[in-house]
Amino acid sequence: MSEAVSPTVSLPQDPAVDATIDADRLDDSLAVLGALVDECRLELAADGLHVRAVDPASVAAVSLDLPADAFEQYAANGETVGVDVSRLGEVVGLADPGDSVRLVLDAERRRLHVLVGELAYTLGLIDPEAIREPLDPAEMEYDCPAELAIAGSDVSRIVDAAEMVSTHLTLGVDADPAAFYAEASGDTDDVALAFDGDDLAALSPAAVESLFSLDYLREMARPIPADSEVTIALGTEQPVTLGFDLADGPGEATFLLSPRRSVA
Amino acid sequence: MSEAVSPTVSLPQDPAVDATIDADRLDDSLAVLGALVDECRLELAADGLHVRAVDPASVAAVSLDLPADAFEQYAANGETVGVDVSRLGEVVGLADPGDSVRLVLDAERRRLHVLVGELAYTLGLIDPEAIREPLDPAEMEYDCPAELAIAGSDVSRIVDAAEMVSTHLTLGVDADPAAFYAEASGDTDDVALAFDGDDLAALSPAAVESLFSLDYLREMARPIPADSEVTIALGTEQPVTLGFDLADGPGEATFLLSPRRSVA
Amino acid sequence: MSEAVSPTVSLPQDPAVDATIDADRLDDSLAVLGALVDECRLELAADGLHVRAVDPASVAAVSLDLPADAFEQYAANGETVGVDVSRLGEVVGLADPGDSVRLVLDAERRRLHVLVGELAYTLGLIDPEAIREPLDPAEMEYDCPAELAIAGSDVSRIVDAAEMVSTHLTLGVDADPAAFYAEASGDTDDVALAFDGDDLAALSPAAVESLFSLDYLREMARPIPADSEVTIALGTEQPVTLGFDLADGPGEATFLLSPRRSVA
């Protein structure tokens, strides 16, 4: 849309950020962030979009990277902006399938212009300093020897089943025979899911087991595409990481969830 | 259905009104009326159905006309009946796609028989005198020099976007360059939509602008078919009118909404 | 799934019951039971599954029979187990379309293993003695001379329409001309549905009429497949029975609902 036809939108002459991306692609990415946080910092680096965020309880974290080539057009030079994720998602949600979304940063007036077809939405930015610090990658070294890959739909199935009997579940791997399993116990009922080598896209086994909160896994499972391949790393009383591709390849996201102390 | 098989339904011998219409067609028309009123007067004239109604707050009005040829069969001679619009809509909603609805008026017993397949619903009528007077057309002369036509889906898009930031929006037209625009401002965010000549089915421009309540526009946008062409007339601090075809042509409806005082 | 890959599930060596059935087929059957009861007794006889249950208010009853050949594989010898119907339904609901469900009874530990793909759900059983006695078939001899058959979709349509005006409805049959009818009366509106011979798959008429609660009929109509043929038996101030096939043939279910005293 040209400025001329929209009396209220005055785009900056030489914006620090000017990027265009498929609406669904951006929507999916925002859904991943929205699973853990309401507000977060978007780092618009020269090579693409990078996000690191931790949930308010510091129990879970998310990292998301959309390289420049995941955009139809991308120009940025390292600006970091604070945004209301769910609000931005609502705006992008107004797009029709196949629409593109153009993001133009007005750094001076601290506003992000979101342009979708005839729509020009001006999003007020949040001071990045006011948003909680993401985890320090240095602190994120964990001992997770077991790795495997399952379908996104299986992650949802595990959560659905476990929620029937409990508020938390155990994720573990058996070394011999090699298998990935999820277990939850309730007062009268128990649930167990087991995936052997044949069920898994990949499996490097090790005898490990950790306990996790289902509330967080529910939120994490929601935005993971059912047909995506999810790479899971597990240890004993260690965090679990769930990694998957965004935007059919170019982008990637990883959820990290801290373990719960098991009630012995 | 024949009377014989239904012991409870006794249709009048020589009904004042006996009309049959496609169920979806009638359903769509009732949805338009239901956007503004719960009860209204249906004028069943010889040439078709005519409705004029004003909302309880006298802020908005609707007019609807379904000519006789929009019906599969139509016989009436000027009866005016008061009906519960939403209730009648529920009954018609019981029809299967492709079903026809037959309306038979029992003027004496003040009941409307609604016949759908094996179903005979007897709707108690409301005294027309008990229903608020529609606006006097003589009072409905407004100065709205700007006219344009957009898709029904765009009307919904405008309302969806504006609701994100405010409870009211500005609709306006620019003369040069010719454009139709909608704007809403919130505490932190602003929304603007602009449609130039290329986006519009028709546009006779004039520099005008008025402020409207989104609650009413939301209700009005709901029953407007996404693929219909909506004719909009605008003035400055004047009501807006939204006109569109019903029943794929033969019928037509117009919403009218009074402007709000702008908060200077 | 093999035991090996699932550390928590240890299936009994020589289970009293070991049956496999299409998930949708079992799901549909549980929905029928769930319409009236939360818990019920499943009799796993050598020739198949038999269920007789009565609702907590003793107003309605259900009988359901799934012969052994409705299962992909069936082995049982007359065990009767008490189960939480809705819970079992939730577990079966986790299956994907086309999945099979395997039921393995651990009589000793009073648990039912429900195996769906990688999922092993261990359902704690309920003491059958703790579940209210079903009706004694000897008490279930009624005088219902009128019989007819209509589509499941018509049963729903009758309930939908009657609920608009009342909390109960009359079901009746006229002998001459032969017709099945449903009627409900409200303060201002009335509803009547009539089905003559042409509308009915079968009709053996007799002048009968009884009054029933819509709350129960609503629950009963829900699990009846829209395209199924429902056999209805009616009398005067007698219970109504609604019979229909399950699992496209091999199984069958019958609802029974006691009449209400008509308010003269």
What this model shows, in words?
Chains A, B, C: Homotrimer. The subunits circularize to form a toroid; DNA passes through its center. Replication factor C (RFC) is required to load the toroid on the DNA. Chains A, B, C: GO terms for molecular function: DNA binding; DNA polymerase processivity factor activity. Chains A, B, C: Belongs to the PCNA family. Chains A, B, C: InterPro entries: DNA_clamp_sf, Pr_cel_nuc_antig, Pr_cel_nuc_antig_N. The structure is a homotrimer of 264-residue chains. The first copy, chain A, has helices at 23-34, 85-92, 152-163, 214-221, and strands at 17-22, 39-45, 48-54, 60-67, 73-76, 79-84, 100-106, 111-116, 119-124, 146-151, 168-174, 179-185, 190-196, 202-204, 208-213, 229-234, 240-246, 251-257. With 264 residues, chain A is an alpha+beta fold. Chain A has two domains: 17-130, Proliferating Cell Nuclear Antigen (Box), CATH 3.70.10.10; 142-257, Proliferating Cell Nuclear Antigen. In chain A, α1 packs antiparallel against α2 (85-92) and α3 runs antiparallel to α4. The model of chain A is unreliable at 1-7 (pLDDT under 50). The A-B interface holds A 1-2, 4-9, 87, 90-91, 94, 118-124 and B 154, 157, 160-161, 164, 172, 174, 177, 179, 181, 183, 187-196, 199.
